[in-house]
Structure formats: structure tokens, C-alpha cells
Amino acid sequence: MTGGAAMFDAFDLSVPLIQAPMAGVSTPALAAAVSNAGAMGSIGIGATDAAGAATMIDATRSATPCAFNVNLFVHSSPKPDRAREAAWLAALAPLFAEFGAVPPPAIRPIYRSFGDDADMLAMLLDRAPPVVSFHFGLPPAEAVAALRGRGITLLATATSLAEARQVAAAGIDGVVAQGIEAGGHRGIFDPTSPDDALGTIALTRLLAREAGLPVIAAGGIMDGAGIAAALALGAVAAQLGTAFVACPESAASDAYRGALAGPAADHTRLTATISGRPARALANRFTAFAPTVPPPEYPIAYDAAKALDAAARAYGDYGYGAQWAGQGAPLARAMPAAALVATLAAEWRAAARHCAASTG
User: Fold this and answer.
1) Is 50 exceeded by the pLDDT of residue 81?
2) pTM here?
3) CB–CB of 309/315 below 8 Å?
4) What does the domain layout of the chain look like in residue ranges?
5) Of 49, 275, 293, 315, which residue is most buried, by most CB within 10 angstroms?
6) d(Cα 95, Cα 322) in Å, to the nearest integer?
7) 12: left (phi over 0), alpha (psi -120 to 50) or beta
């Protein structure tokens, strides 16, 4: 990788680009296409179990000889609160009623944290994917040591310098600097703590100077000029997610793709209403919902959201889906993943040449 760090040397990337994992949207076909085009593809396995994750890893590996990234959720285990959950379901009841439905009688954590999942760790140690990354926090030290012992490169998301210092102290190889512009869930370790909401530019530069780790910039980057800017700030690569949602290889629904191509892309919203954790999505009926009670913890709230989305879709209403997208959403381009990587690479090189000429 031109301008890359030693961390990436073994992967022989031709463009300093990681396709963001995007659980539920990224697919083995998307990740493989990106990796085959010279960048690094990713799959998100936080929304499945060890068997499902193994199938995804095997499918990706069978479609590419190149390196790819496997991403996991490491959220704090939610504490059930029946009164809070009942109040939340009552708040959602009028929305369900619009579609002739009622909320489920109870909701539960639908995703298991990697920190509590011995089966997932055993599967990863067996499959040994080239790169494993963590979102929402860090796994136990023994899990980090075991993964490193298998020669796996490790990355973790940070939204602040304090989190990045925890990443470095844990022995992780690189940090993803997630700015507030990013689509999908904020990677903040503790959602009950104040969030300084640092933008990608400030966070990337701060971590490049102070974190002591290779930095991958993420949030609002949609084209090669953005990649070049990230590298100029000291990042070794840029991570792009929303840019890949419209690729035919992604699992995005037709409604999601249509919303991304429409006026909703101009108005992304950061909300905890959908899942129980702050996440940036395209503006829709769910992001506009203003409840009077707080949602349950992540991912318990997500169980109710998925039930509401299913009820709405049965009536042809797609305004309650989790259509994650970053602030750069209006710049999305619908094209095959390999073509998008080639376009991004050409734009990056042109921007880098322009920068070199203007400073020379």
C-alpha cells in the first residue's frame, strides 16, 4: 500500500481503503469484490452466531485469496429491566397500531457480545481470518492474546483519545477513528458517558499525533479526495461504509437503496431510538419518532424495532427500517464494488498528485 504502515505491508493493498463491515449490509460477495479489487473488504458478524459467522468467513475466503476483515460487537452485556422494557413497548404501541399490530409481549437481547461468546472466539481461532476488528469496546485480554497468537491483525474503533489509549494498552494493532459523521452505530465504549462528538478531521489528527497506533479514518468519507485528506491528516487508510451500500453486492433492500438515492440522504439523524445505542441513519419515520421514555439498553431495544419494521413492511411502509448512513450519503454512487474501488483509487491518486504539485 503506497503511504501505508507496516501493519498493512503483508496484505499488499493497492489502495489505502477498508470497506466498513456494516453488519446486515456487508456480504461475503461485497467483501471479496473489494479485496479482489485491491482494497480490504469486511464482513460484520456481530448479528449472527458462531456457526453463521463461520459460514460467512468460509464464503468470503472461497471468493478471494486476499485479506479481509471480520468485525465483532463487544458491547456491555445488557441488564434486563422489565419495567423499562414494558414502558418502551407501551410507547411503541400506537406505531404498531397504525399497521393493525401490537408490540411483542417481551423483548430480549438479540445479539450476543463477543466478550461473552466463547464459541465465537473458538471459531475465530480455528478459521484465523487475516484481520479481526472490534466495535463498542474491547474483548478480554485473554481473547486478544489468543487471537494475536494466531497471527491475526487486530483493529478496534475509538471515538475519542481516551478510548484510543485503551485500544493501544490492550495490544491492538490499529485504531479506527470514527468521527461523528459516520453512519451506523457510534463505537463509543460507554454510551452512558458524555460523547464529545469529535468529527473525523479532528479525531483523526488527534489520534495520529497522540494515540501511538496506526489510524484508519472513518466517517463521512465517500470519494478519493476524502481518502487523500485522511492520509494527509496522518491516517494510514480510510474506512468507507455508506459509499458501498448502493453496490449490487450489498444486502441493502430496495427501500434502503431508494432512500439513499433520495432526499433522505440530505438529512441523516443520530438516534438511539432504533437500537438503544446512538446510530446515524437516513431520516425516516423512526428517526422522527420522539418518545417520552428512554429505550431499553442495546440490543434489547433493537428487538422491538425489528418487530415494528416487520409490521410496517407488511403494509408497504418502509419508514421504520434501520437505514444506516453517514453524513456523506448524498455522494453515494451505485456501481459494482470493483468499479467503485477502481474509481476511488483513481480519485485518490489524482488528489494526491494535485496535493504534491501544490506543495512542491
Assistant:
1) yes
2) 0.95
3) no
4) 1-75+111-252+332-360, 80-110+262-329
5) 275
6) 16
7) left
